[in-house]
Task: structure prediction
Amino acid sequence: MVYLSRLISDAHLDKEKEAFSTSVYGSRWDIEPIPKYSLPDNEMPAKIAYKLIRDDLQLDGNPVLNLAAFLTTYMEEEAEKLMTENMSKNFIDYEEYPMTVELQTRCVNIIANLFNAPKNEDAIGVSTVGSSEAMMLAVLAMKKLWKKRREAEGKPTDKPNIVMSASVQVCWEKAARYFEIEEKFVYLSEGKYILDPEKAVELVDENTIGIAVILGSTYTGHYEDVKAVNDLLLAKNKKTGWDVPIHVDAASGGFVAPFVNPDLVWDFRLELVRSINVSGHKYGLCYPGIGWALWKSKKYLPDELVFNINYLGSNQASFTLNFSKNASNVISQYYVLIRLGRQGFTSIMENLMGIADYLASRLEATNKFEILSDRNGNCVPLVAFRLKAKDIHYDEFDVAHRIREHQWIVPSYTMAPNIQHIRVLRVVIREDFSRERCDLFVADLMHTIDYLDKVDKETLHIKRNAAGSWKALKSISLMTFDSQSHKTNGVC
Ligand SMILES: *Cc1c(COP(=O)(O)O)cnc(C)c1O
Result:
């Protein structure tokens, strides 16, 4: 028998390539534009979609070198495993996943006790997506309680206000705008970067729903003096017959102060502190997507805000801004709490403080920088600093831009209203910022300063205005709106 070989046509070959190419970069998807603006008509293999997207994402900054963010970039493998294993669970399905809800309850108990919730009052709390959702729930509760009190007294309820420092995180301005509450700001002054308790309490009037006090300023890491506000406000409440409470925004400091500074009285030990928010994904050492809202007693959470629902198979209470969310973030928080315990948290937080102090002293020793943050465990572990020399041709923004060439991401920003002439650089010390990494950073920072000292003004100007590749990418999604916030906000 004779076998005849058939010549395969080009058309046939193309078809074969489409159907059978198993290598990502040999396939047609590698050479065609990736779908960007409309849903593609046809499928693509999973492996190829994965690789194309992964390749795009590799152009992002390296989270490890991101010194701008408070958010956790390292978790243990066991935590990651638990998260992956539970990724498909919707937290809201209480009936289907009762054990997950039980873990939330345990977390709320552990955190409320850490914040010294009184044993004789029934403290209550809920997991949220982050501190922003948590503080919004707390603001809603304060507003409602104020309104009920005013209505009972037959007084107008159309002008609620909230007192806070001008250095609040943007979530406070959002809450004020979204929920139509007047913002009463206490402005800061040079050298004093936190709320002045006397000025804050002076601003309180009959329409004040509460004072927000920050434990860990986003700008400089300072703790505001919650106790002083509490004492002054108690006296004012007594004199006027009002019942203005305090909410503590402990987004960054809530998981630091109890371990480094256990004697600092800022939490539920203070009579007027009725609610607290904390970010699990900052020093709660979990990946993004978890925060906590806590109330000292059930009576500070008005019933009208809690919804009872039964369409998931049983009666359940819900007090959140959104409904569904991933269960794995709550599970990861429980892992961290029981894995570390008080001892583990203390070791980590003390190390972070040690590295923050070390970095501050190394920066100071260069004689190039002035340190604006506090030390010795009196603030969250970060170093906020600025250039000492005033008569130079570059500023903090140039330092931040140029150090990006060494891959480090360091934010530069202007301070809160009234002291916006102060420009700051900030390094947040996270768990994975070891002393070794700190030394490498200081070396690169000094190379950057050395370069800036040598480069002439004109070259610097060209560099400032050159559009980097990230800017080009950014233009795809950048939109501007007329009504911007009136101040800049430090990166979180
Ligand atoms: C980060 C931060 C927030 C916002 O917290 P998210 O968890 O990112 O929503 C609010 N307040 C302060 C002081 C913060 O540092």
